[in-house]
């Protein structure tokens, strides 16, 4: 809340600069791994890992998680390591630019209880939807579009149209 | 010849660190900045995504053209268009309600946002919920609307890659022109100071 003790906040990168660097990072990812960047796949690997701990036999026999578990230890996956990297990269960037601030963002605009409920509900919808689509904004939208996949553009179009409509009905932050 | 198909820890960490570093520097750890795209006040999400798509698509095309990339070696999402549309609607609704998508919520957590941590918990719960409900219905929904000809525009509609990239470049220019016009009319993009201060009553 207080603005008196905060360090100097550096501006965000211009979108063109951020886009070029992100495009080069995505290209490097394709060259190294054969696939693009992602995020929701790591959540699935985490769910498979928890499943193996809690109910190993049921997880191995599960129609959706079983094939994933057969591929190898889901916690030691490229996608999990990538998300660990995202965490490190974001933390370094936020600290270097004086933009790290512990806060419940949206608390002042919609109230803390409403904000927590909306963040949880929004996360649930996004997590569920990403499994239906076979990826999220980064894995299917960004990476799939760079690979010129038809599904990526369908995803991005419907994603944005729905977001515009819902953001007029519900104030998320 | 590329790709190296390196699925190891260092490959994942390196790509992730670059991804997270750009996401935060673009302002995508902030739900205020991200949500402002839906209200057309801040077009950074579109500008950054379109630029990245064009750079990566053109780079892949060039690597292939000069023989550094094996043909058909890059992962392309399966063209199950109904599944992609239904999932896209759910992710879009979740983004509007929660303020993030799965990737940006990680950038949100590591720029100090507790609401982003709650969103991440929701993503894991939603992912687990999908597995719990997985059966014939969800399986067929995932695969619904599959294009039989192929997954890319070249395979499915016989649009050459170079033509698609040209269309994307034109769309990129349009996004920058249109976006900047909207940003001027709607009170400009969300600045780093505004984003760090958090959402307030008026925004």
Structural write-up:
The complex is a heterodimer of chains A (173) and B (203). Chain A is 70% helix and 0% strand. Chain A is mostly helical and 173 residues long. Chain A folds into two domains: 10-102, no CATH class; 104-173, no CATH class. In chain A, helix 8 crosses helix 9. The longest helix of chain A has 22 residues, at 112-133. The model of chain A has no long low-confidence stretch (mean pLDDT 95). With 203 residues, chain B is mostly helical. Chain B has one domain. Chain B is 67% helix and 0% strand. Chain B has ten helices and no strands. Chain B has helices spanning 9-26, 31-38, 44-65, 81-98, 102-109, 114-133, 136-142, 153-157, 161-185, 192-197. The N and C termini of chain B lie far apart (50 Å). The model of chain B has no long low-confidence stretch (mean pLDDT 96). Chains A and B meet through helix 1, helix 2, helix 5, helix 6 and helix 7 of A and helix 1, helix 2, helix 3, helix 4 and helix 5 of B.
